[in-house]
Amino acid sequence: MTTGPSGARDSVYQTDALIAEDIDAYLEAHQHKTMLRFITCGSVDDGKSTLIGRLLYDSKMIFEDQLAALEADSRRVGTQGQEIDFALLVDGLAAEREQGITIDVAYRFFSTDKRKFIVADTPGHEQYTRNMVTGASTADLAVILIDARKGVLTQTRRHSYLAHLIGIRNLVLAVNKMDLVGYDQARYDAIVADYAAFALSLGITAFTPMPISGFKGDNITEPSDNTPWYSGPTLMQHLETVEVGIATDQAKPLRMAVQWVNRPNLDFRGFSGQISSGSVKPGDAIRVLPGGKTSTISRITTLGADLDEAVAGQSVTLTFADEIDCSRGSVIAAADAPPEVSDQFEATIVWMDDDPLIVGRSYWLKLGTQLVSATVHQPKYQVNVNTMEHLAAKTLELNAIGVAELATDRPIVFEPYADNHTLGGFILIDKITNATVAAGTLHFSLRRAQNVHWQATDISREAHASLKNQKAKVLWFTGLSGSGKSTIANEVEKRLALMNRHTFLLDGDNIRHGLNKDLGFTEADRIENIRRVGEVAKLMADAGLIVLTAFISPFRAERDMVRAMLPEGEFVEIFVDTPLEVAEARDVKGLYKKARAGDLKNFTGIDSPYEPPLQPQIRVNTVEMTPAEAADFIIRQIMPLK
Amino acid sequence: MKTLTHLERLEAEAIHIMREVVAETEKPVMLYSVGKDSAVMLHLARKAFYPSPPPFPLLHVDTTWKFKEMYKLRDRMATDSGMELLVYQNPEAAERGINPFDHGALHTDMWKTEGLKQALDKYGFDAAFGGARRDEEKSRAKERIFSFRTATHGWDPKKQRPELWNLYNARKNKGESIRVFPISNWTELDVWQYIQLNDVPIVPLYFADKRPTVERDGMLLMVDDDRFPLRPGEVPVERSVRFRTLGCYPLTGAVESTASTLSEIIQETLLTTTSERQGRAIDKDAGGAGMEKKKQEGYF
Predict the structure, then answer these.
(1) Which residue of A has its CA nearest to B12?
(2) Residues A239, B225: Cα–Cα separation, whole Å
(3) Torsion angle, alpha carbons of B149, B150, B152, B154, to 10
(4) The whole model's pTM is what?
(5) Which terminal Cβ of chain B has fewer Cβ within 10 Å, N or C?
(6) pLDDT digits over A243-290, tens only?
(7) CB-CB neighbors (< 8 A) of A23 in chain B
(8) Which residues pair with A109 in a beta bridge?
(9) Is there a contact between A120 and A90 (Cβ–Cβ < 8 Å)?
(10) ipTM of this predicted complex?
(11) Rg (CA), chain B
């Protein structure tokens, strides 16, 4: 059956007989409809807007006045002669209507008696990669359109890659414009085979191909007589019946990111959020991350009556049996299967801003309801979205997609994106312009912290320190090699010992020869060296000690990273400000000589930079003071220690 | 396993959006126009924050030309929800006596567009919930759920932030404010079904009843009070009518109907052959791009 625009028109007003005869029965059926969100991917010439217009038209979503406007517009600016140009229904903004292209993400709605559909309509050009990723992020299914005359093109590959990247499991390969190739089965089969080979290379093992014509209506809602060789479902049949991942989400352990604490009075303390996976019942044992405290659910409250159960996708308010720490950014999880907590990740990043990524700059990272500062390392590679090749990259520009490591200033609760889109998908926000500059998906934590959960301990860090009759501190000495850091730190520690303070000195000798003996002196290794020193210092500070560290620690970002690990005021940056000439002239260990001779690479001050502190709490100088004077000065600055 | 229906998914999405706004903005407000979309939005807000009352006020940007029944429901809903109701009327429009009969497009511009800007500036709200839906009009289909406005309340469709998953970036630059549309993804039918399933109170004007009307310029207008200037030969006639959308009574066309229950209203909506906004004069200005232009100028 061919349904040309004039043929289909009659069916528009053949309204569902049930509506007229028994509206209550009709409504009862519609109350139980499910929803499918999908995205259509294709370029201007693939007939994407026409297809969407056709779906709206065939599902009777076009009213008489809209149709009259459409007919008038079709004659005025349409590209289909005297016939209806369905694309005009879809192209929203005035600028696009004139140019004849869609330039942004637009959402369309239609429904049948089985499902409600939300279509994200996005442009196909490479410069709109960000729009497609945006539209795809909420989609359960993607329709990849191919022009039957042209076959698998670069853009087909790009769209498939992006859909796969964003985690869409249901792909429909709609071979469109079959009317223009005489409904040729051989042509169709060749395109499908061609696509299957490519899809497999991306790791796409299943997709649903179908021959259609959006313009003529073949295999859209009714099986077409023009393709007797095709026995699969029509596009609409497939959209109405395809399984979406709701069952899988519910089978996973409970995860709910807390959005808001509901505290109307002293007797009620509820935690509001949208459940992203699993289900919850009163009495269930839960664990609140990142703190790690456990409790049980007492109520699931909502306007009306309490619920007996809530499942993935629902927005609820939960109350606990115990008063435990829980606030915006916390994640409520199944007690026996909590998600990971980490602050270093590998991630795929899609850059969405005109200004490129600045490696090492601090951006806001929003994941679920957590907002932290994050820095992105130099990308491991960038993906050419047309060929899927991995290219070397120093940064990421608008619409570039790359894989990079990133670090957050404090640990966040997360899951790999493949397991949980809410706890694995994030955006980056520029701290100055407030623009959303990137979206990303977390692959895994770099710290093998997967099975280490934060143990909530009863003896707090404050208790540890007060037992020692002191306040924990980290005295962080930084400066060039040979500036006198270790000498001064040693003098300071001796004075503290005389004052009955509990201290520990970390320096190159006790760290480089043990904990960090696997690290060299490349930039990456130096960063890792300082990170580990910072972590050890933090643990010792947690134990209530006054920790002294003596490392060159040349990069500002790393020192700031350690500062951020510790409570406000506990990190004391001490700059041993000895000029390079003086340090080099001393050359106690003969290292400067070797570096100048080229025998020692990446030596700070010679062929590797030293970034002096901008506002150190304490500055000492071994040109004007002796080590003992410097130590006395430091002690005076850090008093009192209780 | 429990399968969520389309309405349950839409409800959960709207509640999630409202909570994000409350958590991430300083001074939110809910624009309340007393229509069915506002009614649903208010119900969702009460559900989102229960047992607390919604932690923001309702703002009605009043044109002084709404139907009497609308004012009545407005006051009742504010009391029932325990929310503060702010009513704002543009003093300049009042002083100049701007009205829909004599001033045409200027009426909407002064009372609604200007009134809204003035009200938001006066109270310093940084986020305002609105009940707009993407299915209403073509330019709305492209608008984000969090839609940023410049200090002068302008909208730039080309500078919208990408909105991924359910992650909303609510960080503002100085002077910017956000319009937030929690029911963006609802259709007219979804709104009606939700009202029915949840017994959401709506203005009785949506139900058919005998009302005094005159036929003018192809529209049936209700003579709601004695400010309605009758033209020579016009005599109000009692007709059984109802309204598909509600605005200023002199600008809102009624449809002849006998639908007196929600089921009948939905039935009529489904069987109808004209789209919802067609009864509203506002969209017709400036040709096909009417609403887009209005929005760029700051119309909600």
Answers:
(1) A315
(2) 51
(3) -50
(4) 0.76
(5) N
(6) 876 667 888 999 999 999 999 998 999 999 999 999 999 999 999 999
(7) 263-264, 266-267, 270
(8) A118
(9) no
(10) 0.89
(11) 19
